[in-house]
Amino acid sequence: MARNGMPTDEMPREDAYRMIQDDLAIDVAPARNLGSFVTTHMEDEAEKLMANMLSKNIVNHESYPGTTNIQNRCVNMIAHLFNAPTQEGSVDAVGTSTVGSSEAIMLATLAMKKRWANKRRAAGKDHSKPNLVMSSAVQVCWKKAARYFDVEEKFVYCAKDRYTIDPSEAVGLVDENTIGICSIMGTTYTGEYEDTKAINDLLVKRDLDIPIHIDAASGGFVAPFVNPDLVWDFRLEKVVSINVSGHKYGLVYAGIGWVIWRGAEYLPKELILNMNYLGAEQLTFTLNFSRAASHVISQYYKLISLGQKGYRRVMLDLICMADYLGSNLEQMGCFVVLSKKHGQGLPLVAFRLDPAKGYVFDEFAIARELRRLGGWVVPAYTMAPHSDEVKILRVVVRQDFSHAGCDALIADLRLALLRLSMAGPGQG
Ligand SMILES: *Cc1c(COP(=O)(O)O)cnc(C)c1O
């Protein structure tokens, strides 16, 4: 591969700008990227706020107390949304903003690991072999967290007809070295919600002192508005921490996540550093340090401008669009839809070719054809291990997926199927 050094000469700014635009021409239009959960559109006011905040470093609490207050308000609002118990002697919830759910999950993993190790140490027991119980449908960041922080992964494998965690198997895998169980509010494969209540109730019934962390990267800003009666969050006594991506259904551009703990006792003191930065004492418990304040500010803007009602309206719109797409796919007669309808999961459509029809092409060929026909990015995946090698296509419904866009996608899908059927085996 060629390695480009930095040019020796200066270049007029407008030339550099134009050159970069040319290099970017091969990227797909973000609105046509139906594979991603990450926000690809924000309104002018939000973009203006973000641009204005680019020059402020979020960690500098002493210089930017207004920014710090806004970040704390976001933590409190999100903790409230997840029904965190109120803290004795403090009005503030325990949590922080992060770069995304990955950083949030690393922090939550560290907190569970430290808490477990401290307890083992106090009891004079070995604390060298921590493990974490999780479904094999976890997002890749869990593998990172396990590897980077030396925690063994204990997988509850998916099955042919089950793409989420089996609660009794999960609790059955628990041993004295288990630091916690991860439960996913909206798996990346089918968008299904894992049954945290069943895990919680089994732990309570068997009197097991094992914490649950909820990976609500996507579902954290969906379920509370669409299914307020679904009990998955801090209302369950074993749930100690929850992460959510602000840049997914929190409706902010890429670069923000949140992690909330049930209370101060679940975030070991060793993880909180008191920095004396530019003359002021401040507490920090993140992996990263400096970052523009833009994302936190635009998260706050979304929270206050939409409010509970606005988020509910947006999420219900997305759910309707997903249902509309799902029913259209079913009516075509060649697909089986695997995701849940009517808001029982994330607003996405996961589907596969009907295996009974014996098609000579597969889901990966359809994905390639859609890319060629309309520039659509509709990823094809092989499902989580032990799901019998099932292949799926997945469309994530975001706010910038319009009705017209949805109909155009359906038309291109029909065309793709026609072309692949005519091309015969081994084509596409
Ligand atoms: C997206 C996602 C993550 C990773 O989140 P980032 O915000 O992209 O770091 C983790 N878990 C689940 C379930 C996700 O959907």
TrEMBL record:
Modified residues (N6-(pyridoxal phosphate)lysine): 248
Pfam families: Pyridoxal_deC
The protein, known as: Glutamate decarboxylase
Cofactors: pyridoxal 5'-phosphate
Enzyme Commission number: 4.1.1.15
Record field: catalytic activity: L-glutamate + H(+) = 4-aminobutanoate + CO2
Keywords carried by this UniProt record: Decarboxylase, Lyase, Pyridoxal phosphate, Transferase
Entry GO terms, CC: cytosol
Any GO BP: L-glutamate catabolic process
Gene Ontology molecular function: glutamate decarboxylase activity; pyridoxal phosphate binding; transferase activity
Annotated InterPro entries: Glutamate_decarboxylase, PyrdxlP-dep_de-COase, PyrdxlP-dep_Trfase, PyrdxlP-dep_Trfase_major
